[in-house]
Structure formats: structure tokens, C-alpha cells
Amino acid sequence: MMGVSSDLEKAIQIKEEGNKAFKEGEWENALKLYTKAIKQINGDIPEKAVLYKNRAAAYLKLNDYNKAIDDCNLSLEIIPNDPKALFRRCQALDALDRHEEAYRDAVQINILDPNNKAVQPILHKLYEIVQENSRKNAQVNNKVAAMFNFAFNIDVPTDKRETAMNNLLVLAKDEPGAKALEEAGVVKKIGTLLKVEKCHEIFLSAVRTIGELCKGSVERTRNILHELGVPWFMDILNCNKEEQVTAAQYCLQTILNSLSGLENKPESRPNQELCEKNQKEIDTLLTCLVYSCTSRTITGLARDAIIQLIMRNIHYKAINWAEQLVEIRGLQRLMEVASELQEYKYESAMEITENTRAITSVCLARIYENMYYDKARERYLAAIDDFIKSKLITPEIESKVRVIVALTALLLGPLDVGNSIVAREGMMEMILVMAGTDDKLQQKVACECIIAAASKKDKIKSIISQGINILKQLYKSKDDTIRVRALVGLCKLGSSGGTDASVRPFAEGATKKLAEACRRFLVNPAKDQDMRRWAAEGLSYLTLDAEVKEKLIDDTEALHALFDLARTGNQAAVYGVVTTLVNLCNAYDKQEIIPEMIELAKFAKHHIPEDHEFDNVDFVEKRCNVLGKEGVTTALVALSKTESENSKELICRIFNAMCGQQELRGIIVQQGGVKVLLPMALEGTTKGKKQAAQALARIGITINPEVAFPGQRCLEAIRPLISLLHPECSALENFEALMALCNLAGVNETTRLRIIKEGGVQKIESYMYEEHTMLRRAATQVITNLVLSSDVIKMYEGKNDKCKFLFLLCLEEDEETAKAAAGALAMLTSASKKCCKKILEISSWLENFQELLANPNVDMQLRGVVIVLNVIHSGKEEAEKIIATNIFDLLMALSVIDEEGKERVKELASEALKAAEKWKVIMKPEDVPPAESCDEE
Q1: Could you tell me which of 822, 820, 823 has the C-alpha nearest to residue 849?
Q2: d(C-alpha 50, C-alpha 38), whole Å
Q3: Torsion angle (degrees, nearest 10) of CA 698, 703, 704, 708
Q4: 423 — pLDDT class (breaks 50, 70, 90)
Q5: What is the DSSP letter of 1?
Q6: Over the stretch 195-216, which tens digit does the pLDDT of each residue have?
Q7: Quick check: 139 and 107 in contact, CB under 8 A?
Q8: What is the DSSP string of 878-905?
Q9: Mean pLDDT across the stretch 787-795?
Q10: What is the DSSP letter of 801?
Q11: What DSSP assignment string belongs to 88-104?
Q12: How is 549-604 classified by DSSP, letter by letter?
């Protein structure tokens, strides 16, 4: 019994600490203390109900309404009908727009406690909302009935049916409308209609309506799946109309989102609990997708869409598709797709598009990335081996060709796996034998594999020695498809020295000749798209040579041919175009060269890489400007649709290099650059996200944020910018992020609240302690804008030294930092009496004020007078402290000052003295009693 009593006493003590923290606005701390107290109590006793209630209040303050509801429910389980718990649940439900439930709670409170004045306003408000919702629901139901009569009646004219179906789609986007449609049986009606519907627009609207109905409602999604079944969606997907395929793909993604708790946002993550609850449906969806990807009866567009769905969701651990896919032999099926050739046409051939193999390569890479431990990777490799052995066991040359085609896909995807296969005995020999045959298909396949295999320097040497002559021979072919591939192989081998101007594997001038050959293929309108994309890939290797870069940047026709190729959306062309552009901008990673290391290398007679003169900063800036003005942004926007994370990183690098030129930032905004940079700054490789974030920061510095990031984008830009406030980022990245955040913090309260929510205040403040002057200045300027928010003011009112440090920064040697700190302090003291009191708790407050009021800089002097005025206004005790010092004399002097430009200082000093007079800490002249006189005897 002693133990129980002791635990309860401890819990009550912790609760009191929590209550104190709550009153002081330290809600995070209060939350932790209430949680700690709850853990002390075993069993459902009244004290525990109180703690749940109190924690719900903290959650409400932190806008975490779902958790507030959960805690109120737990409290009400212990003490049913507790008015306080009901009231807090009512507030949380109201905040989540669950008005009917909130209204029920408000009515219950009113019955239990009729004299409760706090509930009356919310009860009245909710009554109005519920009545309005009821009226709207009646209208919606009438609309649904009317639209059903038109949309699902084949005898009604097509234009009227089309309008009705579009109206149903609009209704489905709103929860009351979606609910009404479901209740009216729209799912069954659409399922029946699409078996006979001939009008494409009506068909599309119906499919999209199903997609909208699946949004955000697990129960409705499960009902739809039960009603229609996954095969129904696969049938809709299986067509040659891109719009229909996209609509069906969207439906399937939305179903997965609802079942797993995902949202259509880059930073969204699945809900583990929801995934476990719906695991059966999620697994069924994967199985259907995997088994359909090798179906011989589906279109190439459908196949691409299916593989994209697998790829986009494979990396979520909660969904757990990666390892399951390996277990159900999904890798073998994907390798089967990767081995497919459009040139082989036979009865059981799969239909593929020009993008299928590129998409499959990326998917294979994404799966491999999610094999987090050795055993999983071994199983991955075993599945690939199984596929290769099953093909090589037959003597047909077609099987061998398919193996090489699939191997190329691996080399372009999970490179480590591809390299391990190439390194096996006989594999390279088989590729070279194929290249040396007279069969054009074998030559083409072998060329592509040699190009893909020459990705690592240790492999290139053996390929150069064995394959260079074969490639030269193939370049003489009369077949352009063979010639262009051989050309790319020669380009890749010729660029093996990278950007090092002193290393050139081929003879002098050979690189320029190869570049000219690539150019001819690229700009020739008679050549098909596939040849032009191979030419772009050749240039991607050759543009490591600075002389080739300079020649290409002056070739407007070739640049526009590159941009046009990018805009086609051909996934296979992405790598070549993007890499060429990266090389032109010098946006690749460059190793930092330390002078001491160069001297050491010279002494040891090691090779030292040399930069070409055409790669110095002036030439690079010129190339970036040319690309920007010739319209590279629209090409990058088109290329950003790629599923390859590495290609997206390269796109981010180009954007960042372009944003390094101030005059190009406006063009990038106008041509849609921000729209694609925002998602890439949140999702992708670590380097890619950083590059995109820095590009956004640079845009946010020079362009009004409301223009650069209109509407919701202002909020979306905040998280990427805050991600640059990290010790691993460079000082330049830190500085540019702070500058952009400063501009965003000045937009409105919504942006300031988002910065606070993303944990930005603490990160920004950490740079106020930096030794780097520019970082310290930029961070202080951001805080100056952030203190416009009442939430930040509360932080400065808390138990901390924030006000003290800001006061000290007012004396900073850097004038701009001092101005920003004094400006922030002026705003804080005008809004908070607590901050005024905190200033006078600083031991050096008098010296600080003296220095501010005597500052030769008018702006600083003005800020000093404002702070003093605010402190005097804050209370009599504070006014007495100020007036009891020589600050009174300084104010007197400033109140009569007669210098040009100091009119406002004079005015505010006089106001400060008047404020002191109101507190009666100094006398007005007329209130001073006359001096006493005495008569002499």
C-alpha cells in the first residue's frame, strides 16, 4: 500500500509541475510531465482521468487534435460525462471540422452543466454549422438524384450526360458529396456503365470519380474494392489511351494511399498501424501488379503504369513490398520485361514502349536499394541468377540476346548487381562475340551493353583492350542504328579521363570529331527519336572535355535539338540530355584541392588532375547564361517527370547552377522551375534535395516570395530551406537559406507559424552564436521578422536567456547585426511586459542602454529610445529603475536635441519622459512644490 500511495503522490507532484509549465506557455514541457505522471499510476482512478484531461489541453495548444481526442476518450472511460473532458474533445473535433460530433458533445455539456458559459458560444456556432450542413446534405441528395437520371441513362443526349458525369466528379471531391454518392450506389452504377460506355469523356470522368471517392476514407475504399475488385481497375488500365491509363493508375495509387495512410505529398509516409490493419488488401494489390506486369494481353502503356506503381511505393517499410516482391518471384518477372525487345515480334511477345526498359531499370534499382541487409541482397542476386540461368540453359541465340538486354537494364539500374554479372566468366566474351557477328540485332544489343558496362574505370581498361577495335569496326556499319551506338561506345571510352585536361585516352582532336558526329545525328530531322537520344548520350560523355563544351554552347541549333528531345518525355533520353547539361554548367561534384596535397603529390610524382582554362568561373557563368536564355528551364521541367532519383539529382544540380546567376532567377520562376524544385527538395537523394533547396533559397533571396512561391508554395518552401540549416551544409548554403527565410518570415503570420512548426526558430537562433559575421547577421534578421508572431514572443517570455542574448547583440560590432537585434528587441518590448522585465534582470542593462542612447548611428539611437520607452510603459517599478539612473539625463538631453534627422528620436524621448510622469516617478514642472522660505529673526 505504501508503494501505491508513494506512486500517486509522485504523480500528483509531477502533475503540479506540468500545470505550472502549462500556465507559463511551455506546452511541450507540460506534455512530457503529464505523460510522465500518467505512467506513475496503475489502474483507472480519478487522478488518472484528470491527467488525461490536462494532457488533452496541452495537445490542443500544440494543434495535435487527434491526440487530444484520444486523451479525452481515455478520461471519459474513467469518469463518464465529465464536462471538462467533453469540452476539450468538442474543441478538438471542431478544429478537425467534425462538426456533428462536436455538436453532440456541446449539447451533452449543456445538459450536464446548464450554467457553463464557456460552452454557449461554441454550442451556438456548431448549431448553425450543423443546421447549414443538414440543409446542404438535403440539396446534395437532390442533386445526386437529378444527375443520376442524366449520367446513367444511355438515351439522354451525350452532352447532357457528359455534364452530369462531370458534376458527379466535382461532388466526389467534397466529403459530403462523396458520402451522398456512395449512399446512392454510384460505385455499382459506374461499374455497370463502363462495360458499355462509348463516350471517352464520360468514361474518363467516371473513372476519376471512383478515384476521388477512394481519397481519405479507408472504409469507403474497402467497400469500393469489394464492389469492383482489383481486376476491374486493371481492365480500365489496359488500353492505349494515355489519359485513361493515367486515370486508372491514379485510382490504384489512391486506393493504396487510403489503405496505408499515405498522401499525395513528397514528404508523406505510411501509417504503420493502418498498414497492418489493411495488410491483406495491400498485399493483394502488389500480387496483382506483379503478375500483370508480364501479361501478354496488356498494352505497353499499361505495363509502364504498373511498373511505375510498384516503383513509387517499393521504398516504404510499412507497406513492405520490396522483400515480398522478391519472394513472389517479382524480380524474375521484371527481368522478363527488361529483356523484351521490340524487334522480336512473335505470338507471345510482350508489348512495350520506348520507355519500358528505362522504367524497369529504375524499378530494379529501387528494389535493390531497399534490400537493407546482406541476406536480402543475396536473395535479390539469387533471383537474378535464376532468371539468367533459365535463359542460358537453352541453346537459342534469342535467349542469349535477351540475357544481354536484361543485363544492360541492370547496369543502368542496380549497377553493383550488373557489375557482378558482367564479371562472371564468359559473360564479357559473349558480349564481344555478339558485337563481332554480322547480325545487326546482336551488334546493337552488344553495343548497348558495352556502353553500360564501361561505367567504372577498372572495367574500362579491359573493355578498351577487348572492344575498342570492334566498336571502330561497327562505326563503319551502313546501318545508322548500329553506327550511333558504336559512336556512343567510343565517346564513353574516350571520356574516361573525365574533366582532367591532362588525360586523353584517344589521339588529339578525336574527341572533337566524335562530338561533331554526335551533333550530326542530333540535329538531323530525318533521324528518328531513338537515334537522337543516343547522340545526346554520346555528348554526355564528350562534354567532360571543356573544348567540346565551348563549341556546343555556341551551337544554338544543337542546344535547341537537345531541349526538344527533353520535351518529348522519352525516359531513355533523360540521362544523356541531363548529363550533357550538367557538364555544360560544371554542376558535377568536384573534389576539393588542398594546396599542401598538390605539393605532396608532386613530390611523390603522382598524377595531378588539371583544369582546362575553359572551365574557369567566367566561362561557366557564360554557359549558364546562354542555357537560361535559350529556354533550358522548360526542358528541365519536362525531364523532371523521370522516376530516376539520380537523374532528378542531376536536374537539381543544373537548376542550382543556373540560380547561381541572379539574372536567371526570374526566368526560372516564370518558366515553372519552382513548381518542380519544391517536390525534388523534399524527396530524392540527399545531394539532390540539398541542391534543390539551395536553388529555392537563391530564388527566395532576390524575388519577392509571394511572386516566387505563390499561394501554398510559400509554405512548401519552408521545410527545404530549414533543411539547409545543418552543420553538414556549407556556410554559403546556411547563409542563403537564412536570407530566404528572412524574406518568407516577413510575408505573413501563416509563413511564420510554419517556420515555427518546422522547428525553424531553434535552428535559426543557433546561427546567432556563430563566429561568422554574415551568418550571425542573417540569423538575427530572420528573428527580427519572426518576433512579429505572438508564438515567438511567448518563446522569449519563457525561462531562457533569449532576451539577454538579443540585448547583447545590440552592441555587436557589425552594424547590421546590431540594428536587427535592436529592432527585434524594440518589437518584443512593445508586445510583451515580461520581456521588458527580463531586460532589467540583465546585470549590464544600464551600460547597454547608455551605449544605445549615445550611439552616433541615428537608427540605433532611435531603436534604443523605443526600447526604453517600452520598458517605462511596462510598469511603475520598471519606470522607477530607469529614471533612477543617468538614462533620465540622456532622455532629457535627447528630448531637446535639435539635429536634422533626429526629429523622431526627440519626439520619442519626450514621450518616454511623459510616460514616466504618468507613473509619477518624475514630477511635471507645475507639480513641483515651491521652495520653502523662512523669515530671519
Answers
A1: 822
A2: 10
A3: -80
A4: confident
A5: -
A6: 998 999 999 999 999 999 998 7
A7: no
A8: HHHHHHTSTHHHHHHHHHT---TT-HHH
A9: 93
A10: S
A11: HHHHHHHHTT-HHHHHH
A12: HHHHHT-HHHHHHHHHHHHTT-GGGHHHHHHHHHHHHT-S--PPPPHHHHHHHHHT
- pTM of this prediction? 0.72
Task: Give the closest residue to 310 by CA, choosing from 294, 296, 700.
Answer: 294
Examine residue 637 and state whether it is found in any structural domain, yes or no. yes
Render pLDDT for 806-833 as a digit per residue (tens, 0 to 9).
Answer: 999 999 999 999 999 999 999 999 999 9
Cα gap 160→140, rounded to integer Å = 19
CA distances from 786 to 55, 84, 572, 761, 837 (A): 28, 34, 47, 8, 21
What is the C-alpha to C-alpha distance for residues 934 and 937, in angstroms, rounded to an integer? 9
Grid cell 531497399 — which residue? 370
**Residue 645: count of CB within 10 angstroms of its CB:** 17
3-state secondary structure of 155: coil
Q: Is residue 193 part of a domain?
A: no
In eight-state DSSP terms, residue 456 is S
Q: 58 with 22: CB under 8 angstroms?
A: yes
Those residues whose C-beta lies under 8 Å from the C-beta of residue 557, and which sit 6 or more positions away, are 523
- How many residues appear in the chain? 937
pLDDT digits (tens, 9 = 90+) for 616-627: 788 889 999 999
pLDDT of residue 542: 86
How many angstroms separate the CA atoms of 726 and 364, rounded?
32
In angstroms, the Cα distances linking 390 to 337, 387, 441, 736, 827 are: 15, 5, 21, 55, 75
One-letter amino acid at 539 equals L
- Three-class secondary structure of residue 415 per DSSP: helix
| Cell, residue 746 | 516577413
Q: Is the confidence at residue 465, as pLDDT, over 80?
A: no
Task: Give start and end residues of each alpha helix (H) in 293-439.
Answer: 300-313, 322-327, 330-338, 356-369, 374-392, 397-412, 415-422, 427-435
Query: Is the CB of residue 210 less than 8 Å from the CB of residue 250?
Result: no
Average pLDDT value for the chain: 87
| pLDDT (0 to 100) of residue 127 | 87
**Total structural domains within the chain:** 3
Locate all alpha helices (DSSP H) within 194-293, ordered by sequence: 200-213, 218-228, 230-237, 242-260, 272-277, 279-292
Model confidence pLDDT, tens digit, residues 877-921: 999 999 999 999 999 999 998 888 899 999 999 999 999 998 988
CATH (domain of 654): 1.25.10.10
Q: Choose one of 116, 144, 159: the last residue of a domain.
A: 116
Q: Which residues contact 727 (CB under 8 A, 6 or more apart)?
A: none
Share of the chain above pLDDT 90, in %: 54
3-state helix, strand, coil in the chain (%, to 5): 75, 0, 25
Q: Which residues contact 91 (CB under 8 A, 6 or more apart)?
A: 60, 68, 102, 122
Instruction: Specify the CATH number for the domain of residue 20.
Output: 1.25.40.10
- The predicted pLDDT at position 2 comes to 40
Residue 616 lies in a domain: yes
Q: What residues contact residue 702 under an 8 Å CB cut-off, 6+ apart?
A: 662, 665
Q: How many CB atoms sit inside 10 A of residue 189's CB?
A: 16
Owning domain of residue 904: 822-925
Last residue of a domain, one of 76, 97, 116: 116
Cα separation, 636 vs 566, in Å, equals 7
Supply 726's cell numbers. Answer: 545543418
Rg (CA), the chain: 35
CA angle 287, 290, 294 (to 5 degrees): 140
Per the CB < 8 A criterion, the answer to whether 505 and 494 are in contact is yes
Whether 108 is covered by a domain: the verdict is yes
